[in-house]
Amino acid sequence: MTTPGVALSGGGASPSEEARLNRQREPLPTDVASLPDLPAAYARELGRALDVLGLELAADARSAIDGHVRLLLAWNAAVNLTTITDPAEVARRHVADSLAAVQVIRAGPHESLLDLGSGGGYPGLPLAAVLAGSRALLVDATAKKVAFLDAARRAVGLTGRVDVAAVRAESLRRADPGAAWDVVTARAVGPLDDLVELAVPLLATGGRLIAWKRGDISVELAAAARAAVALGAAAPALQPVPEALVLAGHVLVIVAKAGPTPAGYPRDPAVRKRRPW
Fold it and tell me: What is the pTM of this model?
C-alpha cells in the first residue's frame, strides 16, 4: 500500500521520500520541554499585541499559550493544522487574534466556553488559558485535529479545565439536550447565519456567540440577523479588532441569546442548504 500524496517510482522511494515516510512513522511529540524554544521575534510580536489589547497574562497562562504554539509547529508537518508557520506570524494572526475577544468575554457570563471547529486550538486554548475561572470544550469533526487538541491541553497543563470532543457542531444539542453554554466561539468557521443556527440553541439565556469575521460581511449579517431573531437572540453586534494589531478588517460578531430557542434547531445541514436564512 502506498502512502497518499507520496509518488513511488518502480525502484522505490527516493532518499527524500524515504525520510519523509520515516518522519511520518515517528510518534508526534507530547512533551513541550522536548521542543525548540520560540524565537525572540515571537515574544516581541506577542508582547506588542498584548499592549495593544491591554492584557497582562499570568505566568501560567503565558506558559500554556507558548507551549501550545510550540506543539502546533511541531505537529504541523504531519497534521495540517495551520498554513502559518512563522512563529511571529502565529503570535499575531493566531494568538493575538484569539485574545482580541478576552475583554468582550469578560464583560458577561463566561464560566463555560464552547469552541466550535477548534482545529489547531484557536481561539479556544488561548482563551481557556487566560480565563482561569472558565471551563472549556473544544470540538472538531476531524479526528487528527482532536488528537492534537487533546495532546495540547495535556502538554500545557489545562486538562482540569479543558475537554475535547470529535463531533460535528449540529450533533451537540442532540448529544446533550440540557447543555447551556455561557459563550460559544467560532473562528473562520462557515457562514454567519449557519453559525447562529448552530450556536444559539447551545447557549444559556444571556449567553453569547462570538464569531471572528473579516472583510465585507453585510450580506452575512443580514441573514444572521434573521436567524438570530427566529432563534431567540438579539441581532448581531460588531466589535472591531484594534487596527494596531495589523489585522485589517477583522471584527468580532456578537450574538446574545435573549430567550428560549424553538424546537427543531439546529436543522440538518441539507435542510439549511435548501432553506437558508
Answer: 0.89
